[in-house]
């Protein structure tokens, strides 16, 4: 089994959209325009391929975007720097094989050289104890709870401290930036999208 984790490409978007909208009630649906926002603005948007097949994806955002998610807005109001995991989706055929942990390890590596905090939320309505346990064993702690709108579900807002960030900040970020290495490179956003800041509807991780 050959596994590759790589940045999303434009030709992946139809498959990503189909995978997202087939994921069930724990993942909010997307339309093509909302997915395009992520493609143009998400700092971390990677897909997993297994033997050439789309197996899953994870989308995460830095602070400072005009993203109309109540959970992203909560973290924006409380923390100056963070990476927010908006959503992770694994195809049914590849669940229970550790791909979620691989993705979380990858986004952790991305975040810890850039920010002091990795954040996300989990649904409490309906509550999935496997998901709650997964995040707890990965070092996330609850920092608050809120409802996603008047009629939305209750969610647990989670954050994980990234202690390596202080060393990276003091050694590199305050002295010219990260080393020029492929694994440290930022995702290349579509041309011209960096200045496009527009809001989209509520999403989840």
TrEMBL record:
<dbReference type="InterPro" id="IPR016181">
    <property type="entry name" value="Acyl_CoA_acyltransferase"/>
</dbReference>
<dbReference type="InterPro" id="IPR000182">
    <property type="entry name" value="GNAT_dom"/>
</dbReference>
<protein>
    <submittedName>
        <fullName>GNAT family N-acetyltransferase</fullName>
    </submittedName>
</protein>
<dbReference type="GO" id="GO:0016747">
    <property type="term" value="F:acyltransferase activity, transferring groups other than amino-acyl groups"/>
</dbReference>
<feature type="domain" description="N-acetyltransferase">
    <location>
        <begin position="3"/>
        <end position="163"/>
    </location>
</feature>
<dbReference type="Pfam" id="PF00583">
    <property type="entry name" value="Acetyltransf_1"/>
</dbReference>
<feature type="region of interest" description="Disordered">
    <location>
        <begin position="184"/>
        <end position="205"/>
    </location>
</feature>
<keyword id="KW-0808">Transferase</keyword>
């Amino acid at each position: 089994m050959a596994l590759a984790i790589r940045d999303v490409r434009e030709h992946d978007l139809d498959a990503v959209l189909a995978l997202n909208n087939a994921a069930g009630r724990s993942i909010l649906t997307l339309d093509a325009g909302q997915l395009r926002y992520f493609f143009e603005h998400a700092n971390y948007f990677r897909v997993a391929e297994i033997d050439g097949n789309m197996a899953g994806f994870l989308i995460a955002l830095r602070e400072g975007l005009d993203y109309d998610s109540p959970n992203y807005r909560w973290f924006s109001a409380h923390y100056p720097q963070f990476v927010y995991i908006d959503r992770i989706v694994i195809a049914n055929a590849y669940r229970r094989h550790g791909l979620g942990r691989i993705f979380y390890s990858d986004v952790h590596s991305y975040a810890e050289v850039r920010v002091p905090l990795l954040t996300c939320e989990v649904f409490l309505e309906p509550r999935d104890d496997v998901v709650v346990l997964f995040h707890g064993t990965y070092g996330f702690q609850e920092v608050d709870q809120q409802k996603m709108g008047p009629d939305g579900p209750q969610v647990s807002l989670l954050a994980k401290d990234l202690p390596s960030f202080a060393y990276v900040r003091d050694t590199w970020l305050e002295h010219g930036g990260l080393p020029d290495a492929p694994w440290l490179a930022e995702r290349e956003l579509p041309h011209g999208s960096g200045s496009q800041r527009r809001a989209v509807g509520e999403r989840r991780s």
